[in-house]
Specification:
Elements (H helix, E strand, L loop, with lengths): L18 H12 L3 H4 L18 E5 L4 H6 L6 H12 L5 H7 L1 E4 L19 H18 L3 E5 L1 H7 L12 E2 L5 E2 L12 E5 L12 H18 L6
Parallel strand pairs: 1-2, 1-3, 3-6
Antiparallel strand pairs: 4-5
Length: about 230
């Protein structure tokens, strides 16, 4: 499926606007050892995307073991599922989506496996707080008009607490107000927040048909948003 919108073309040697400042921010984040020094992680190894600015930002939970090894966000099984979703929303294949969307996470380091052995450990509240400044600075620099909040932890960062079933398939303002995707507001409501479920195989949320229908609704909302000029 072709992308819904032609991607901007640049000379290969031309840096996108803001890329230098983003690269500097990335260097600061990559040097972070806060959780390691606090004894929360055995080894700090932040994972970040290319320093390519975008005003569409996708925020997940944390890198997985594959991402820690490859040093690229969303490189594991969950990432393959996620990119299939984005393709259905009109963002093209994986490389198209990586160029169009800035991919990041609530915490930047692999937290280790879950104690149960199923999936990855959910980052602790202490880890989230130590990493909060990094995400805040990314968002302040990129000034996104749209945030794709993937999974419960990302939803908790951007929206008031609510069940996933009451979030996926709906669009929200920065203040958490539900919006009509056909009548978008102006800058004060930005960034718009579109919740998506976590694509991890450890999640059972998508086992229910009703939840899969909510996901399809969310992807249709995303397709519609990408076909219109960004608000603000």
């Amino acid at each position: 499926m072709a992308p819904v919108r032609e991607l901007p073309r640049r000379d290969p040697g031309e840096a996108p606007p803001g890329s230098t400042r983003l690269a500097l921010l990335h260097r600061r984040i990559l040097a972070c050892r806060r959780c390691q020094e606090a004894g929360l992680l055995a080894r700090a190894a932040p994972v970040l995307p290319e320093a390519r600015p975008s005003r569409v930002v996708l925020v997940g939970q944390a890198p997985g073991r594959v991402e820690e090894t490859i040093r690229r966000p969303f490189s594991g099984r969950g990432g393959r599922i996620l990119f299939r979703w984005l393709e259905r929303a009109g963002l093209g294949d994986e490389e198209d989506a990586r160029r169009a969307v800035y991919l990041t996470s609530i915490t930047k380091c692999f937290p280790g496996p879950a104690a149960s052995g199923a999936g990855d450990r959910r980052p602790s509240r202490a880890e989230v707080e130590l990493c909060r400044e990094h995400l805040d600075r990314q968002l302040a620099l990129l000034r996104p008009w749209l945030v794709l909040a993937v999974g419960q932890m990302a939803l908790e960062r951007f929206l008031p607490p609510r069940p996933m079933q009451q979030s996926v398939g709906r669009l929200f303002s920065a203040a958490g107000q539900e919006l009509d995707p056909g009548a978008l507001p102006g800058p004060p409501a930005l960034p718009l927040v579109l919740p998506l479920p976590h694509p991890s195989g450890a999640s059972r949320w998508l086992n229910q048909e009703a939840n899969r229908e909510l996901l399809e609704g969310a992807l249709q909302v995303l397709r519609g948003l990408l076909q219109r000029p960004p608000p603000g």
